[in-house]
Each structure stands twice: as C-alpha cells, then as structure tokens.
Recover the amino acids of this structure.
C-alpha cells in the first residue's frame, strides 16, 4: 500500500458549518484533540447563507414564549413524526446556545431595552428568531469560527472524505483527499462526527452550493448506519425565479415575517384561500389583522403567508399550475406595499432586509422597496438523514455521530424556518460532547487497509477510462430527473421508473472520464461526488414510494390525504447484506404523558 | 443568442497563460455563470472557487477585466462584450491553480489577533444589555464575508508584499470590530502599532472602493484605530482617562 499521510485525532469532525464547528468547539473544550475537515475554505459552508434567524424561546419580545410553546410548534410543523425527544431537547436548550454565542462575540440586533431582538417566522407562534438583519448565518458561522480557531482545533480545509473506515462494527477513521494536490489522506480517530449538511445538488433548482451532495448521508449509509425520514425534502417557497441564472437562490422568509405578502397575477392574496385546519385557530382571517401581527400586536394572529413552508410551497405550485403565476413562472412576493402603512417604508425595508435589497438590486435590477419580487419553490433542506440517538447523537455504529442537517429526527415531516440554526447549535454541541466522551473511553482502532485500497483505486479509475461521459452532464441529467419525478408533487407512476433510471445512472457514473490531473480538478471532484448523489437520490425515491400518503413536505397526488396509521411510523433506509437498498416502516416510540400534555395545552 | 469571449488565466505556481473560450450569454447572467458553464462544457478541470452564488460567502474572488470582483455579483451586462473579458486570479496571494490562490496566510493572520474578551454579564441570568446605536458600527464591520478583495488591492500587500509586517484592511477592520465591541475588554493597540503594522496604511482607500459589502473600511475602521494608536502612544494618560470615561458612560462600574 502506498504511504498515505496519516493523521491521528481523538475526535474527527467532518463538515465545518454551524453543526461541525459547534461540535469541534465542544469536543476540544472537553480536552480531547480535534480535527475538523471542511470541503471548502473555513467559514464558507452553507450556514453562511442562512438569513432569517435562530429559533429560541428567549421570550425577549413576547414574554408568553417558553420551551413548551416552541416544542409544540416544532411538533405541529413536523406533523408529529418528529423524534419528540430531540424536539424537546432542542426547544429546552436553544436559548442557552444563543446566549453562548453572544458570550463568544456575536452581535445580534437589539430590543429597545438592550436585549437580543427576535422576529416572526413561519409556524412559530411568537416572535422567536434571534437575528442580525438578514445575515444571521454569517454572524453565527463567523462567531463559531473566530471562537474555534483559538481552541487548538486542527482544520483541514478543502478536504473531502470518500469513505469511513471500520474496525469490526466500530467506525475508527476516514479516508479522503485534499483538493489542492489531490493527495489521499488517512484520518484515524476514536470518534467521528458527521456534519456534512444536505443533499440539495440532487435537484436542479436549489439554494444549495456544489458542496451539498449528501456526503454524510452516503458515508454513513455505506458504513452500515440507518437513514430515516428521507422522503421529506423541504422545498423553500421563496427562491428567486428570474433571471434564469439566479433561479433557486433563497429569498428569506424574513420578508414575509416583516410584512411581505404573496400575490398571484390577479393581485389576489391567495394564501387566504387555503388555511389548514390545524392552523385555523392561530391564523389571521383578514389582511388588517395580518399586518398588525407583523407590527408586533400581540392580540393579532399571524398572516397566512407565515404558514409552514410545505404548505406555502404547495399553494404557490397550485397558483402557477392553474395559470395565475407571474410572467416568469413564479408568484409575486411584495414588501413594497407597506409604503401604504409606513411613511419611511424604504428605510425600514433596507434596515430589516439589507442583503435581500442588495441581492435583488444587483442580480435582478429590482428595487424591492418599490417593486414586487418574483419567487417560486427551491430545494432547500432535507429533514431526513442519519438516524441517531436523540441524547448523544450517536448512530447505530459505535463511534459514529451525526449532527445538523445530515442527521435526522428533530424536524419530522417539515422543518420550521429558524429551527435549523438552533438545531446546528443544540445537537452540534451534544455530538461534540458525547463524541469526546466516547473518545476518552476508547482507544484508536485498526483501520481497514483493503477499504483504503479499493477506495483509492475507484477514485482514480476515472482518469484512466476510455469513455467520454462528462461528469457535469451526468449530474445535470440526474438533477433533471429528481426535480421532475421526485419533486414537490409526487406519484408512484413517476417515481417507480426513477429507480430503474438510477441504475443506468450508476453505470454512467462508473463510465465518466476525467480530464487533466489530480491538482485542484473540479471535474474529478464532481465525478467523485456522483456516487453520494446517487445514493441519496435512491433513498429519497424509495422512502417517498413507501410513504403512501401526503404529510408535510411529502405530497403524493395518488394519496393526497394524511393516513393516520402512517402518522405513527418513520421510514428507515439501510443497506442490506447483498448491497441493495432496503426500506421499511418502523413505529414511532410513544410520547411520554408530560409531553403529550404540553402539546394539548398548546393546541 | 449573444456570445462572449473570455480570456481565462490557466496555470499554476510555475506559470501559465490566458486561454480563450466562447460561450453563450443569457439574460441576467453573471461572470461566475459563464465560468461555470465553460467548466461544465469545455474545460472540466478549470479550477475556481464558489459556494453561494449570491455574494454571501466570499469564495469567488477574482480579477475581471483587471478589477477585483466577486464573480457571482458581476453581471455580464456591466461588461463590454465587443472585446474579450479577462478573468484571472487575485494578485496579492500565490497562485495554486487557474483562478485559485493560496489564501491561507489570511487564516494564519486572524489566529494571531487576540480573541473577544467580554466584561462580566450585566444581568444575573448571564446576559448583557447593549443599545442598537452602540452596535451599529460593529455590525457594519461584521458584514465582512472574507472575500479578501480588499487585501488584494492594498498596495502594501499587492505591490510591496509586506505580508509579514502588515495584516491588511480585512484584519484591521476585524480588530476594529473587536475594539469597538461594547462588551470587549481586551486591548489590542500595542500590536496594532508593532506587529500588525497599521502605520503602513497610508489611507489610499483602495480597499473601501472594492469592498462588495460596502464597508467603510478606511473612514469607519482604520482611521479611528489609527487615532487610538496615536492617543495611546503619545498621550497615554489622556487615553486612560478617556477609556475609563467611555466605559463608565456605557454603565460599567
Ligand atoms: S487605505 Fe490602507 S489598508 Fe486600505 S488599501 Fe489603502 S493602504 Fe491598504
Ligand atoms: S472587508 Fe470587504 S473586501 Fe475586505 S474581505 Fe471583508 S467583505 Fe471582502
Ligand atoms: S459564490 Fe459566494 S460570494 Fe460569490
């Protein structure tokens, strides 16, 4: 075997967005040595794109808020297939995690009495999102980054992991390459935390960058961990639709939280037309009340634009399908209308939504203080991911932990806006804490040299092939299929054939040819990422077929209603002994009475 | 459909040259779209960095027609299409490959800056109180996306290569953000003058002009820092007096 450079750390964290950074900080604070692998440069992960805020029941703006209301909102939003224990921990611990950021230097917007300001967001009963204008993710990642670099964490920037290494059942290392020279590296660790984020690149229209190819999902699956809830892919209702080159780029829900309204080409606020029964009691039934809510009137109920993302996305799709969309195939999102209400509306908008103002001005020639935006759904987030223990974040493989978007459980069938940043903090911390504990109790294992050799050989094969398949083309074609057949509106006739098509794609992926050499070669990197994209695409399609109902983010035309029995199960995807993908339904553990009561009290 | 010709620098530390590519231009396209399209269809191994495509991550810095820019925020419609558009890597950092430079120096510099050190919490529950008007300036600096374009244009780094003596505008405003943070109690003035080389900045304001986040790097950040340095070194008693007063104005006992 060639002599690959080898690193040894107590804990290795793979992924350096909010969850990975938080995990690394916690582990190193526990006194173990920590390595942090990031696919891009440090501080560039998708967390940076998060705009709206961090959901935490600080009760700074509305004293009626507390963890119980947050917990109930999260469960309702997730349509009760969430892991209730994770939802509970998340709601209880998020406030401390936010306050901790302030102690590390984050500078949140303030209330009049000098505390952290909170804003309204979809599905949250009270103003709950701690924020910094509309660049909260940047503030969060920078704070964690600047705190983390003084903790003695070893950061491996622009490295990608290709496989996990096992010693028996236990995960004891990872094998990957650095982009700069294309050299392979071995990482030996007593515990590993996956924090690789999402799978957005499996779809054509997405808010995710090139990095989000389901790496953690696929690494864990291949190593023998289970994936859960993979059918639930969140299509954020408001992505840019025009001009074409920017389609999919996120438009924060904060626009609606601050008074923005959705209209169709007839100028109708179509969100009033369909308010789900479970939200009737807490949704405004007239425009005036909705506006009062956005202005902080505690007696007003929230406008229907702030219903959950799954529902808003579907209403938008309906408007477009029925011919009431905007000129470029979206609907209108209008914040400029508030000039009827506020004398200094342009200033207000620029202060509350500075980067949205900037983004539309520069990329679409639209002044959002004067004109409506055109928006449509964009692939944003996957609720599904590695199945973990709710308290420790360990998967079923000893030594393998997961946190953040690549782990699953807290969000159920649909994630509320703002619950992602808090999830990253709460479970990033827990993963780091328990990974450090595991590392202290275990020694380094033996890495599997055969696995290293096969991985290396497969990775280099693309340079030697005679074929002429272009890796970018394969990725593009896969995105088309997923978008079309396993997208917002699904049915069995569309999805069944996808499974066969994915087999063809696997052959194509095995036939791609890479030009150039190993040094910083994006064509090669794209080719290597295809395997992960195919794994998560298959998992999404399998789980979506298995759940024969519509719930949260999963909408099945052939089963348009909720099925009570399916509301008590999760879909679990795992790799069978023969290497094939297996999917099964598993009952959700019964919720304890105290939590049931909390939900009852907050109906 | 309209087409545009690009001259993209390809090469590595040993050297390189411009290669010509022609690609179609659609409405609203930015330079990064064109580069990504060329990469996907004509040059799979063309190395460039990008993440967000929306001016938020600071990955896609390059020089477009000689101007330091974020490729994802540079519209094709701003550029004359009658002649080739040149795209080349930043000049203040060593080239790794094609449009990618080695920016690791920046990460090393940041590590050496003393970290945030807050005063004890104001409230029994461990939280602090700050007024919005007292943090506006710090929030302005914290908009920085670490694209390093300001570092790229600063002549002290770009022309004089004084990376060992001078931390550059990005990190001067990082220090400014810490120094002006209402909760911070650390003092970073000594090293600003000595190891961090604030004196090398002669306020040309080139950094401010290229900042995609429109941060007033010089007027709001560097100049006030320079004043603090002058105060502390040449009028130490006055400085102590003013600092105490500033802190007591903020309600610190
Ligand atoms: S103002 Fe100072 S820091 Fe900015 S470019 Fe000029 S010399 Fe460099
Ligand atoms: S200060 Fe402006 S130009 Fe400099 S790195 Fe930050 S965002 Fe870029
Ligand atoms: S890609 Fe993020 S700033 Fe250009």
């Amino acid at each position: 075997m060639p002599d690959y450079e080898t690193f040894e750390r107590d804990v290795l964290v793979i992924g350096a967005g909010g969850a990975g950074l938080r995990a690394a900080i916690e582990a190193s604070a526990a006194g173990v040595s920590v390595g942090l692998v990031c696919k891009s440069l440090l501080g560039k992960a998708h967390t940076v794109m998060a705009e709206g805020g961090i959901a935490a029941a600080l009760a700074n703006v509305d004293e009626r808020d507390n963890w119980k209301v947050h917990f109930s909102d999260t469960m309702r939003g997730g349509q009760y297939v969430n892991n209730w224990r994770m939802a509970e921990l998340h709601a209880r611990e998020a406030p401390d995690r936010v306050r901790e950021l302030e102690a590390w230097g984050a500078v949140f917007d303030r209330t009049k009495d000098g505390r952290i300001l909170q804003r309204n967001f979809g599905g949250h009963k009270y103003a709950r999102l701690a924020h910094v204008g509309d660049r909260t993710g940047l503030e969060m990642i920078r704070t964690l980054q600047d705190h983390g670099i003084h903790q003695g964490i070893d950061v491996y920037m622009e490295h990608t992991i290709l496989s996990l290494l096992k010693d028996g059942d236990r995960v004891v290392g990872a094998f990957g390459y650095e982009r700069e020279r294309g050299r392979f590296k071995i990482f030996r660790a007593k515990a590993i935390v996956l924090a690789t984020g999402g799978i957005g690149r499996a779809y054509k229209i997405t808010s995710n960058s090139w990095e989000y190819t389901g790496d953690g999902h696929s690494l864990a699956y291949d190593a023998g961990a289970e994936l859960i809830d993979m059918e639930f892919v969140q299509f954020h209702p408001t992505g840019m639709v025009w001009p074409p080159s920017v389609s999919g780029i996120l438009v924060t829900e904060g626009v609606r939280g601050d008074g923005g309204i959705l209209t169709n080409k007839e100028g109708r606020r179509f969100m009033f037309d369909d308010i789900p029964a479970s939200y009737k009691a807490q949704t405004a039934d007239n425009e005036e009340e909705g506006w009062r809510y956005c202005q902080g009137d505690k007696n007003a109920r929230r406008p229907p634009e702030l219903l959950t993302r799954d529902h808003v996305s579907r209403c938008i799709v309906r408007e477009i399908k029925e011919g009431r969309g905007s000129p470029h195939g979206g609907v209108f999102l209008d914040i400029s209308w508030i000039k009827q209400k506020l004398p200094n509306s342009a200033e207000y908008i620029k202060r509350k939504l500075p980067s949205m103002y900037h983004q539309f001005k520069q990329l679409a020639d639209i002044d959002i203080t004067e004109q409506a935006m055109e928006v449509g759904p964009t692939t944003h987030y996957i609720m599904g991911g590695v199945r973990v223990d709710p308290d420790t974040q360990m998967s079923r493989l000893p030594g393998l932990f997961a946190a953040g978007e690549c782990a699953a459980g807290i969000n159920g069938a649909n994630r509320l806006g703002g619950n992602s940043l808090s999830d990253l903090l709460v479970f990033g911390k827990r993963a780091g804490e328990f990974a450090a504990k595991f590392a202290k109790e275990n020694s380094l294992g033996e890495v599997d040299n055969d696995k290293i050799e096969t991985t290396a050989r497969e990775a280099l094969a693309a340079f030697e092939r005679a074929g002429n398949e272009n890796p970018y083309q394969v990725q593009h074609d896969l995105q088309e299929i997923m978008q079309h057949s396993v997208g917002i509106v699904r049915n069995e006739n569309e999805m069944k054939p996808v499974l066969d098509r994915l087999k063809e794609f696997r052959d194509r992926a095995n036939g791609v040819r890479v030009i150039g050499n190993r040094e910083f070669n994006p064509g090669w990197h794209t080719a290597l990422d295809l395997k992960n994209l195919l794994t998560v695409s298959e998992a999404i399609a399998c789980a979506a077929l298995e759940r024969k109902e519509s719930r949260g983010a999963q909408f099945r035309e052939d089963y348009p209603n909720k099925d009570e029995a399916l509301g008590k199960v999760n879909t679990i995807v795992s790799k069978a002994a023969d290497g094939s993908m297996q999917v099964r339904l598993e009952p959700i553990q019964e919720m304890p009475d105290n939590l049931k009561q909390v939900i009852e009290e907050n109906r | 459909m309209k087409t545009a010709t690009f001259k993209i620098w390809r090469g590595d530390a040993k050297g390189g040259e411009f290669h010509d590519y022609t690609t179609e231009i659609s409405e609203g396209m930015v330079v990064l779209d064109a580069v990504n399209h060329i990469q996907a269809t004509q040059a799979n191994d063309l190395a460039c960095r990008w993440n967000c495509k929306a001016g938020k991550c600071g990955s896609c810095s390059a020089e477009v027609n000689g101007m330091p820019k974020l490729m994802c925020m540079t519209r094709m419609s701003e550029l004359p299409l009658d002649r080739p558009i040149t795209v080349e890597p930043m000049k203040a950092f060593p080239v790794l490959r094609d449009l990618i430079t080695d920016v690791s120096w920046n990460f090393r510099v940041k590590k050496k800056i003393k970290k945030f050190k807050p005063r004890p919490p104001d409230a029994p529950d461990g939280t602090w109180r700050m007024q919005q008007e007292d943090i506006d300036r710090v929030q302005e600096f914290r908009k920085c996306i670490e694209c390093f374009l300001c570092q790229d244009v600063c002549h002290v780094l770009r022309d004089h290569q004084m990376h060992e003596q001078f931390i550059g505008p990005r990190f001067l405003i990082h220090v400014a953000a810490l120094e002006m943070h209402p909760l911070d109690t650390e003092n970073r003035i000594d090293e600003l003058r000595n190891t961090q080389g604030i004196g090398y900045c002669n306020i040309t304001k080139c950094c401010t002009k290229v900042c995609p986040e429109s941060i007033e790097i010089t007027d709001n950040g560097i100049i006030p820092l320079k004043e603090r340095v002058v105060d502390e070194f040449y009028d130490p008693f006055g400085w102590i007096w003013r600092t105490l007063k500033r802190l007591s104005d903020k309600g610190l006992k």
Summary: The pocket of iron/sulfur cluster (ligand 2) is lined by residues B 58, 144-150, 169-170, 173, 210-213, 215, 217 (CB under 6 Å). The mean pLDDT of chain B is 93. Strands of chain B lie at 2-12, 15-25, 61-64, 67-70, 85-88, 95-97, 100-101.
